[in-house]
Amino acid sequence: MAVALMAVAMTTRSILLRDVDHRIGRLLTQETREFANFVEQGVDPDTGTRFTEPRRLLQVFLQRQYSDPDEELLGLTRTAGPAPAVLRQPRDIAEGVALHRDREALARIFASDARSGTLDRPRGEVRWAKVPVRAAGDTPPGAFVVAFHADGEQAIAAEAFRTQLAISGVALLMTTGIGWAVAGRILAPVRLVRTTAEQLTEQDLTRRIPVRGRDDIAALAETFNAMLDRLERAFAGQRRFADDAGHELRTPITIVRGHLEVMGDDPAEQRETVRLVTDELDRMSRIVEDLLLLAKAGRPDFVAPEPVQLGELTADVFVKARALGEREWILDGVADREVLLDPQRITQAMVQLAQNAVQHTVPGQRMRIGSQEAEGRVELYVADSGPGVEPADAEVIFERFRRGTNRRGRTGGAGLGLSIVKAIAEGHRGGRVELRPTEGGGATFVLVLEEDR
Questions:
Q1: Which contiguous run of DSSP H or E holds residue 71?
Q2: pTM of the entire structure?
Q3: What angle do CA 218, 219, 224 make, to 5 degrees?
Q4: Does pLDDT of 326 surpass 60?
Q5: 165: nearest Cα among 157, 152, 181
Q6: Gap between the Cα atoms of 73 and 315, Å rounded
């Protein structure tokens, strides 16, 4: 704003000085034209005839003129000396700047071939214009000179410039104060965001920014609070995940250590101990592989969709699931549709659902696998006739390291299977996994996917 105000002041000063130059130029032109017309048309009031002497011409013309306060009208006639004789109006003008007393300057003007010019004197700038007088016969020539002292007009422009600078300075101070106050009020929520961010730690993510109003700052505060909510959930999930993983891995490690510590020298006992230790190590390996898979679930390349015939995929899953246990396997239905999905991940999820159903049923029980279309989406499902899922368990079985209560014996799982199924389903656009009741008893797990042709 200071630069803008200075630019305006300088521009105004230039305009005022230009107007002064134009006004002086117009005034000089007007006076010289009036004198030229008087030379052509004027008559001597004493004789009633045309003027024959330059001195008489200049005297009569000067008597009839009224000049401005900063203007001098002079008549110059040639003399025997270097300086011309001066005729002027009987009016007061400051002695320090009067041109009629500056004989040297008048001699330069009278001898100059130019019709106008500027004198830069220590006592002030003078703009002048001249009209030569040529008389008949041998009468010495003369000249009419208009001199304008520009310092007064220029001083007015300079005073206006200084006044505008003073007003601009006051305006700048007032605007700075108002801008400071307004900016402080606007940026206060931003400072609050910064302060809150500085106070956040991994152990304390509970602080939130108060939201006031409906402007962009309020939207920023809401966005920041939403980010904090996500961070808090992420850190809480991370801590819970680490605790659960540590607990699940600690159990097989304890079993392995206990068996190795009590192992004797009997070959049969050693073989049994090796078998048990190997079994626990295999379980640990499965837990680690599942954890690595879940860690990849947040990556963009977790699933690689491609066009797949849903009927062929359903049949392949059915064939692979039949090898999981002696059950009454039924290919319930097949949707003949080409869809966009990751066949390997979907097969992995369906086989995991089938394995989960086998673990919660007994040999001979019915197991149905199929696919179907439903309102712009496709569904792949695994339905069993086992004990079903308790309502309390339905809310938690898809979480990591959570198991349902209706389990038959020791399954050896870590509670990550359904979490993997959920991650695979949600890795597809609009995908999810649902738990539905099975007619006649049991549970039906459904992968719901958006239909991309």
A1: strand 71-77
A2: 0.49
A3: 95
A4: yes
A5: 157
A6: 118
